[in-house]
């Protein structure tokens, strides 16, 4: 948990992305398609980072990863409250179907 650019609570998720396609990929486009984060049944929206996290978020949003290369990235979403659990959902990129596996996160 961090504060976003507006000082509101936000969840920062760091990840390592490997581009297994034949094309350059922008990590933000992949995460926007393949990861969904919900709290209290509602999808959380991306927000802006501040301070030390600005560079990694900006690079994730605009950088391109060449085929076969890795990238350390991050995503940030605004949290509606700091008491409710957050759940991450993941999509199988090959089938475009949501996986049955989720990742619940307790904020406290």
From TrEMBL:
It comes from the Bacteria. Pfam families: DUF5067. This is DUF5067 domain-containing protein. Keywords: Signal. Residues 2-91 form the DUF5067 domain. InterPro entries: DUF5067 (IPR031989), Immunoprotect_excell_Ig-like (IPR029050).
